[in-house]
Design goal:
five-stranded mixed β-sheet; single chain; 3 domains; 14 helices; alpha+beta; Heat Shock Protein 90
């Protein structure tokens, strides 16, 4: 799984789309133009109309340049997007300077460029634009032309009230920018984590398909290859001195055996061609596994001299004695294997895997005797890019390999996502003191993952294979009759 690429995707911005920026700026331009025309010609207030109109037209000219130089689907680089948003902040500040400064109710629009930056640009660029906005807002609190108002009763606001407006703008800009940046960052993290999950699932499905292909090849090729082996052994006897067939009947039998070998070789080639086609159906026997066998398959590679892994499988509430047969879902295998491997990584000496089932539910609980989950993040486990526990001390030989594959905090997220797709509910906790270690419990409705009895391979399929073997044995026995 390309974890480095996922980390880079999560930590970087996707850029600001030109079409989005242009549409937002056209909205602001038309709003500014409408406000100027309304104040000047409808209300009849005196204001520096032509300088203000010039600032609006400059902004419109910049928008046209953006439309002509970039396609609608293009994304501006961080430097270009920051420059455009800085221009918008400066243009708004000049308009407010001409029309009353912070006494102008449209001063609230300072929030817009900083909010856009917080949603689409890196935090350093948003901080830069925030500082620029703060500086201009502070200047406008002191330096500005009078607010367009009735000439016989000019509007005069108390300095304390102006200070309150300044404080409100500064607080609003800071809070909004921080909030939007946090939400956008979490959305990018989730997108990157889901991408990593899909890549992990696709890789697991490829490995599962390869494993199934190998098993199917061994299963299907055993009959023709067995026939070829038997007939070949009979033919080798004819290669001894004086053993060549002398009669026409013996020669006919030899030709029949050679034809049988050729036909079985053709059949092998046809089987391999069918197995190479990934759209071909897979053997029913390869699509299901008993719960005990699946857990043994996951646990076997993890056993070691310093770690004891115990499997405790038993029915509950009078359930049937044999463990249930479940579907071999690659996502389920990957997710459960990830949780068990995680427990083995953190355990000191022992991991206990408890499997229980009844008529309605199947549950698997994984205990380890490691340090347990950190209390400050146990409620956040399952979110992307959240690491759970400090790992045990590694030797120098193990360190490089461990550093290469650890540390992003995506393992538990991927496992949880894939298991929930299979219908599972996951709960995590630490063991009660004085014991130490982590507990992860996975519960499924039995109907979600169990292979029903009527889904077993039909008897016709098994009898077909037996019939082929019987035919091959009968044919191969002919030379010795």
């Amino acid at each position: 799984m390309p974890t480095a690429k996922a980390r880079q995707t999560a930590s970087s911005s996707a850029g600001l789309r030109v079409q989005t920026l242009v549409r937002l700026r056209w909205l602001a331009i038309f709003g500014q133009l409408a406000a100027l025309l309304l104040v000047r010609f409808e209300f009849g207030f005196e204001l520096p109309f032509w300088p203000a109109l010039g600032l609006v037209l400059i902004s419109a000219w910049l928008n046209i340049v953006l439309m002509l130089r970039h396609s609608a689907a293009a994304r501006l680089k961080d430097n270009a997007a920051t420059a455009v948003l800085a221009f918008d902040i400066a243009q708004l500040a000049l308009l407010l300077f001409l029309t009353g400064g912070l006494t102008n109710p449209f001063a609230i629009l300072f929030l817009a460029p900083v909010t856009v930056s917080a949603a689409a640009l890196p935090s350093q660029r948003t901080l830069l634009l925030g500082v620029l906005t703060l500086a201009l807002v502070s200047l406008l609190a002191v330096y500005h032309l009078p607010l367009p108002w009735f000439p016989d009763s000019p509007l005069q606001l108390a300095p304390l009230y102006i200070f309150g407006i300044w404080m409100g703008l500064v607080s609003g800009i800071g809070f909004t920018a921080l909030y939007v940046h946090k939400v956008a960052r979490e959305a990018r993290d989730m997108a990157a984590a889901l991408t990593a999950t899909e890549l992990a699932l696709a890789r697991q499905q490829q490995l599962y398909a390869l494993d199934g292909l190998a098993a199917a090849a061994a299963h299907e090729l055993s009959t023709p290859l067995g026939t070829i082996a038997v007939v070949s052994q009979e033919l080798r006897k004819l290669c001894r001195p004086g053993a060549l067939p002398a009669s026409a009947e013996d020669q006919a039998q030899l030709c029949e055996d050679l034809a049988l070998i050729a036909s079985q070789a053709v059949r092998c080639r046809e089987i391999l061609a069918q197995l190479a086609d990934h759209r071909a159906g897979r053997d029913e026997m390869l699509a299901k596994v008993r719960l005990s066998a699946m857990l043994e398959e996951i646990v076997e590679p993890l056993r070691g001299p310093d770690l004891a892994i115990t499997l405790d499988l038993a029915p509950e509430h009078g359930g049937e004695e044999k463990p249930p047969v479940i579907r071999r879902d690659p996502g389920l295998l990957f997710g459960l294997g990830n949780i068990i491997e995680n427990a083995c990584d953190f355990a000191e000496t022992e991991v206990v895997i408890i499997g229980r089932w009844d008529d309605d539910n199947i549950s698997i609980t994984v205990h380890d005797d490691g340090p347990g989950f950190a209390e400050d993040i146990i409620s956040r486990l399952g979110e992307p890019f959240v690491t759970s526990r400090a790992r045990r001390t590694w030797t120098a030989e193990e360190l490089d390999e461990e550093e290469a594959r650890a540390g992003m905090g995506l393992g538990f997220f991927i496992a949880k996502t894939l298991l929930e797709r299979s219908g599972a509910t996951i709960s995590i906790a630490n063991r009660a003191r004085p014991a130490h270690g982590a507990i992860v419990r996975i519960d499924w409705p039995r109907s979600a993952i169990e292979v029903r009895r009527e889904e077993k391979p039909s008897s016709g399929q098994s009898s077909g294979h037996s019939q082929v073997r019987a035919t091959a044995s009968a044919q191969s026995a002919t030379p010795t009759s």
